[in-house]
Amino acid sequence: MTIKQVAEILGAEIAQNEFEDTKLTGAYTSDLLSDVMANAHDGGALITIQAHKNTVAVASLVNITVIVVCNSRPLPEDMLEAAKNEGIAVIRTRENQFTVSGKLYMALNIDSCNTE
């Protein structure tokens, strides 16, 4: 499943669209950026409410390809600019982290079953 497919499944807005539409390897949900650094996986999505430039820095450090910002949080311009510079997609949804995590879990597992 690609980043654009994730946005479509979530009914999410693509707020930073200068990225390579790569296939996701998984997802990680956290608001604690040190936790993300320790546990998120390469090529995955970060599901969070942390909408600031530091989120992009951490995502870049662990090679996250898309940041999913929940609860319709405002997206600061410096965050979007940093994401653009790093080639990281930023999508925003009105749904909460629990709902987004469940939807992505199901979609990624169905997608992996279809490709095996």
Structural description of this entry:
- Helix content is about 45%, strand content about 15%.
- It has five helices and five strands, in the order H-E-E-H-E-H-E-H-E-H.
- By secondary structure, it is an alpha/beta fold.
- It has helices spanning about 5-10, 35-40, 55-60, 75-85, 95-115, and strands at about 15, 25-30, 45-50, 65-70, 90.
- The protein has one domain (about 5-110): Udp-n-acetylmuramoylalanyl-d-glutamate--2,6- Diaminopimelate Ligase, Chain: A, domain 1.
- Helix 2 runs parallel beside helix 3 (about 55-60).
- A five-stranded mixed β-sheet has the order 1-5-4-3-2, with helices on both faces.
- The mean pLDDT is about 95.
List the helices and strands and how they pair.
Layout: H1 3-10, E1 13-16, E2 27-29, H2 33-39, E3 45-48, H3 53-61, E4 66-69, H4 77-86, E5 89-92, H5 97-115
Parallel strand pairs: 2-3, 3-4, 4-5
Antiparallel strand pairs: 1-5
Helix pairs in contact: 2-3, 3-4
